[in-house]
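Request: Have a read of the protein record below and say how the chain folds.
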Amino acid sequence: MTRTIFTRLIEGELPCAKVYEDDLTFAFMDAGQVNPGHVLVALKRPAETLLDMTEDEAAALFRTVHKVAKAVQAAFAPEGVTVLQANRAAGWQTVPHVHVHVLPRRAGDGVELGWPRKDPPMEDLLALAAKLQVH
């Protein structure tokens, strides 16, 4: 995998405002700060997407997301917190290194995330569910 800006931050090649680090994860302030307290939590290993991680890595990543979200709540007292994880360009991923945004939110902050609801009938939902093989 190509070295990304996140790899360079994690390795200390570029400066960042580190929030937390353990054996598998690294959390730092997003340089784009949508709202004060916006943190990115990344897997240290340069996996491109959630689908490229092991189950243990995914668990470690979201344990860190949980810790960071609690710290963001305590430090910034937002009215809400958005947790966003995107995969591949069509899924809105902008850096090809798996990461999660922990974004403190306030009513009227201008942050938007939306998609058109399709509202399929239950029989279609049941057919879609039947295609999944979750283990």
Remarks:
- Residues 55-76 form the longest helix (22 residues).
- The longest strand covers residues 99-105.
- Residues 5-131 form a domain with the HIT family, subunit A fold (CATH 3.30.428.10).
